[in-house]
Specification:
The protein is 41% helix and 7% strand. The chain has 9 helices and 5 strands, in the order H-H-H-H-H-H-E-E-E-H-H-E-E-H. The strands form 2 sheets. The chain has a 3-stranded antiparallel sheet, with no helix packed on it. It has a two-stranded antiparallel sheet with strand order 4-5. The longest helix has 22 residues. The radius of gyration is 26 Å and the shape is elongated.
Length: 226
């Protein structure tokens, strides 16, 4: 499932807070840490309670307010899944705020999201993007602001991240707020050739040859069907 985000028990041994543990877990490198003040402001969470099972307990887990012995192991696993899902939905809203954009800008500059595989983009850094805002539909993609195209993440773990946890607007909003980040479009294009000739040039040559052949037949009075 797209909302089954990465988590390992070993990571929790080194992290005091849930959000810290989550963002440091292997496979969650695309996520930034959402400020607790943002999470605790119920206005920012409007309507999310309708979409997330065990919403209140998941919110308590994210904000480190869930008692350790309040749940059985099975119940805790269910709440953990809900917490990861809820955090992803909150994250999509947070990263288009002023503070969220700043945090994602830092990750972009470090190349945390990878670099464009297109040769003529010269390793331009990528940005995560969803191709739909509806959760559990499509995995996250990576957008290159030089060639303005999207790519699949290289890692299988990253391919499993729900694209709705970043949304369709984030990279474009970041480039609107920080226009200096957007490089000039790449004017270089790969041109297919056969023996040094461009394929479109060869096609044009063939058409010209056919036309000349038909003209020659007309002058000689030869039928085109012969």
């Amino acid at each position: 499932m797209l909302n089954e985000l990465s988590s390992t028990d070993s990571d929790s041994e080194y992290c005091k807070y849930w959000v810290e543990w989550f963002t440091y877990a292997e496979g969650n490198e695309y996520f930034c840490d959402v400020d607790e003040e943002y999470i605790l402001d119920r206005f920012n969470l409007t309507n999310l309670s309708n979409d997330v099972p065990n919403y209140l307990q998941a919110l308590e887990m994210i904000t480190d307010r869930l008692p350790e012995k309040a749940l059985s192991n099975e119940e805790r696993e269910q709440v953990e899944r809900s917490a990861r899902y809820l955090y992803g939905l909150i994250h999509a809203r947070y990263i288009i705020t002023t503070q969220g954009l700043k945090k994602m800008l830092d990750k972009f500059k470090r190349g945390d999201f990878g670099r464009c595989p297109r040769v003529y983009c010269h390793q331009n850094p990528l940005l995560p993007v969803g191709i739909t805002d509806v959760p559990s539909q499509k995995g996250v993609k990576l957008y290159c602001c030089r060639c303005e195209d999207i790519y699949n993440p290289k890692s299988r773990r990253h391919n499993m991240i729900d694209g709705a946890f970043f949304g369709t607007s984030f990279p474009h909003m970041l480039l609107q707020v920080y226009p200096a980040l957007k490089p000039a479009p790449s004017e270089q294009r790969y041109v297919p050739r056969i023996f040094g000739f461009k394929l479109n040039a060869i096609a044009e040559l063939h058409r010209w040859q056919d036309e000349q052949r038909e003209e020659q037949k007309k002058r000689l009075g030869i039928s085109s069907t012969t």
